[in-house]
Design brief:
Layout: E1 4-8, H1 18-31, E2 37-41, H2 56-70, E3 74-78, H3 88-93, E4 97-99, E5 103-106, E6 111-114, H4 125-134, H5 137-144, H6 148-168, H7 171-174, H8 178-188, E7 192-195, E8 202-208, E9 215-221, E10 228-235, E11 238-245
Parallel strand pairs: 1-2, 2-3, 3-4, 6-7, 7-9
Antiparallel strand pairs: 1-10, 5-6, 8-9, 10-11
């Protein structure tokens, strides 16, 4: 099979949006057996309160991903800010590998740093404080020990607070911090950064200072699956950011 890598992010699958779920299943079917790997860079689900919460949606998604993997593609899943509790049990159900929050994709012809993207939004101090709390392993252990009903109540309250906070924040605060982008790229040694989270699909040119002069880098941002279906296709050393209507 020729090298063809697909990357998606921010589907935010939930029961109230069956159109997105159906579009995801159609995307998997149309690319089944036709790509070497699929990377999901976070927020596959709108909310995730633990791998022990077996819902019809989660089970149907796991089954679709298993079928996709059985056709010959490797699947990699990264946690996002909505599904940060997604764990190894669900990844195994999907026949997928769970990635750390920073992962370097490497092939013979291409390499890039992959992240969800929320860690770049350091100007949103309120969110970063929340992120530090819920990414703490002790907090997660305590939270996952609570009954599902209590976890569901917390998740609903957190979503509502997030929506209210988003309405009052400027676009600049909720976008990435440019200095943090440059710092992240320099630390990784990569010149391509791919992420989602901001729902602002684009390819940005980034100039990094170096000992021998400016170094050209790229920041490629995946869009969310609300009105359009966004994905990145990497064939050999060529990267393309593509989109299709969600409901053609």
């Amino acid at each position: 099979m020729p090298s063809r890598i697909l990357l998606i992010s921010d589907l935010h699958l939930e029961d109230s949006r069956p159109d997105i779920t159906n579009a995801f299943f159609e995307f998997l079917q149309s690319n089944s057996g036709n790509c070497t790997s699929l990377y999901i860079l976070g927020d596959l689900f709108e909310v995730w309160i633990g791998d022990d919460n077996h819902t019809e949606l989660s089970q149907s998604v796991a089954a679709a991903l298993r079928d996709f993997a059985s056709a010959g593609s490797s699947i990699y899943i990264m946690r996002g800010n909505r599904d940060f509790l997604l764990g190894e049990e669900f990844a195994k159900q999907c026949n997928a590998l769970l990635l750390n929050e920073r992962f370097v994709l490497k092939t013979d012809d291409f390499s890039a740093l992959l992240i969800h993207g929320d860690q770049l939004c350091i100007d949103d101090l309120e969110y970063m404080e929340f992120r530090n709390m819920v990414r703490n392993t002790h907090w997660q252990k305590d939270f996952l020990a609570k009954p599902l009903s209590e976890r569901s109540t917390f998740a609903g309250s957190a979503r509502q607070q997030s929506k209210q906070a988003t309405e009052s924040k400027s676009n600049e605060i909720m976008d990435v911090n440019q200095a943090e982008v440059e710092k992240t790229l320099r630390a990784s040694g990569e010149i391509v950064l791919i992420h989602g989270h901001t729902h602002r699909p684009a390819i940005h040119q980034v100039e990094l200072g170096g000992n021998t002069g400016p170094l050209k880098a790229r920041r490629v941002v995946l869009g969310d699956w609300d009105e359009s279906l966004w994905f990145i296709e990497i064939c050999d050393d060529q990267l393309n950011l593509l989109n299709q209507p969600l409901n053609p």
